[in-house]
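Ticket #237: bound-state structure for S-adenosylmethionine.
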Amino acid sequence: MRVDIVTIFPQMLAGFFDVGVIGAARQAGLVQIHLHDLRDFTTDKHKQVDDRPYGGGPGMVLKPEPFFRAVEFIKSQINVEPRVILLSAQGKLFTQQIAKELAKEHAIILLCGRYEGVDERVLHICTDELSIGDYVLSGGEAAAAVVTECVARLVPGVIGKQESVEHDSFYTEKLLGPPQYTRPPEFRGLRVPEVLLTGDHKKVEEFRRRAALEKTLKNRPDLLPHPSPLRKRRGKG
Ligand code: SAM
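RESOLUTION: The complex was predicted; output attached.
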């Protein structure tokens, strides 16, 4: 998979993609990441990427022309039709389901806004407008890092064991993952649940399923159907 990110601050992202799972995936040639400075796609001597908003108001808006040129340049480098995504607080909410869909693509272009945002006409060259949550960041770079990391780890081969990915929260259903424990079995009086030490795979699976439901009920009850499977089971005693 190839990911191209267009930003006025490519240096913010460079180190992030050099290490960890993504760093290893890049070294193995499974994921290619290209960072582009939006200013390189300006044509004036001041490399101006922003201007005042029409209709007045505070702050500056990123101009459309450099984004159009950047996307045209990137498209000329690749021979597949990429998904072109504007990171925006006004976008559709990015979820694990969308990440799974994007992981099947050969190429993704991520466009990062700044200041008051991006000229709305940029959406004409985009296939998607995505938000990473109902809050406002100062720029799209952190959102681009979130989307890239989340999608890249779903590309086959990036995480050694596919099973790890499939056991993550949200992978197959809208459910948080179960709690995890490792050695030692007891630490400062805090014991690992006994069932996990038994080696009984059926019981371990049952424990994990129930613990995942309990955690979801506690932290994200909005994810559960109503009435939730846990409430139903509890009701049955
Ligand atoms: N005025 C904009 C609004 O009301 O939606 C906010 C602009 S924000 C300060 C600057 C840039 O940060 C946006 O253009 C976008 O690229 C990025 N951004 C902010 N919040 C985001 C979010 N929740 N998800 C994705 N990108 C976000």
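RESOLUTION NOTES: Residues 87-90, 112-114, 116-118, 131-133, 135-140, 143 surround S-adenosylmethionine (CB under 6 Å).
TICKET STATUS: resolved
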